[in-house]
Amino acid sequence: MTVAEARERIHPPLGIISGSDVDAETVESARRNIERAGLKGHVQVRCQDFVDARPPAGGGLLVTNPPYGERMEIEEIEGFYKLLGDTLKQHYKGFDAWVLSGNTAAIKRIGLRANKKIPLLNGGIECRFHKFELYDGTREKA
What we know:
- By secondary structure, the chain is of the alpha/beta class.
- The protein contains 4 helices and 6 strands, in the order H-E-H-E-E-H-E-H-E-E.
- The protein has a 4-stranded mixed sheet with strand order 3-4-6-5, with no helix packed on it. It has a two-stranded parallel sheet with strand order 1-2.
């Protein structure tokens, strides 16, 4: 396949991809990479704490790789994961959330039951991708 043929197969995105990070340098690096990839206008990133961010209405997919105390130290890691879980439960109804973590004790503090767990390595660290389906009420009523 030629480059021209490959370019003809590119379809416009079905929605906007958005992301955030609390570190301004990380956000700027992401913006440069988005522009180099030709995705400006399709991918948005902002410097914002996840707890303060609000998703678009109608549901969607959330993927996050929060710190798990290996490469990045964070005080009170289990409290951090509880706050992550509370935020998911309060503001992300109708979403599927995938949380990558290598901290088995902290991930339990999210307070949700994972529908799926996929083991993998992230930078040599044993992790699991946990899928949480977020809905209103109980599963039977969802």
